[in-house]
Write a structure and sequence with these properties.
It is a single chain. By secondary structure, the protein is mainly alpha-helical. The chain has a single domain, classed as Farnesyl Diphosphate Synthase (Orthogonal Bundle), CATH 1.10.600. The chain is built from seven helices and four strands, in the order E-E-H-H-H-H-E-E-H-H-H. The strands form two sheets. It has a two-stranded antiparallel ribbon with strand order 1-2. Strands 3-4 form a two-stranded antiparallel ribbon. Helix 1 crosses helix 4, helix 2 packs across helix 6 and helix 4 packs parallel to helix 7.
């Protein structure tokens, strides 16, 4: 997917990031809908797109998409077309959701985004499997890009994931 970004509008001197949502959200929804049905439903609930029964929810605000915004803005900062970075932005957001799903289970957090956490609605196994599916989909999104640096992007993501595991391991050890 390639899209050009030309001068986003500003609010109080700061650039608006509506264009990030316009680029990333369709690709993110497509990636989540491509997961196996059960995991897609849990991921949709986790993101606030639907209720526990899979019924779309229209009164919830979309996530902030801060990480995808940083991904696209980083691409623009080095002169690349931000649209070419959409798979990376989607991968980053799916990894973020993977970590939240797993962290909620490990910490026993019953709430996420002002409603019951996914594990408390669907069970721990479903939440963990959904996190695993999101992680696999994130790696797949990066590996499938035609950019010459796709393999390097996968290596960078794997290195970041290992850092996340180390950090979570320290967190768990400190909770004992």
């Amino acid at each position: 997917m390639s899209a050009s970004v030309t001068g986003p509008a500003t609010v109080s001197g700061f650039p608006r990031l509506d264009w990030v949502e316009e680029l990333v959200l369709p690709a993110l929804r497509e990636a989540v809908s491509a997961l196996p049905a059960a995991e897609s439903r849990v991921a949709g609930y986790h993101r606030g797109w639907c209720d526990a029964y899979g019924v779309p929810v229209t009164d919830r605000a979309a996530g902030k998409l801060v990480r995808p915004a940083l991904t696209l803005l980083s691409a623009a900062a080095v002169g690349a077309d931000p649209g070419a970075a959409v798979p990376g932005a989607v991968a980053v957001e799916m990894v973020h959701d993977f970590t939240l799903l797993h962290d909620d289970v490990m910490d026993g957090d019953a709430l996420r985004r002002h409603r019951p956490a996914s594990w408390s609605v669907f069970g721990t196994s479903a939440a963990v499997l959904t996190g695993d599916a999101l992680l696999a989909a994130a790696l797949q999104a990066l590996a499938a890009t035609p950019q010459a640096r796709a393999a390097a992007a996968v290596r960078e993501l794997v290195a970041a994931l290992l850092d996340l595991v180390r950090g979570q391991s320290v967190d768990v050890a400190n909770e004992k």
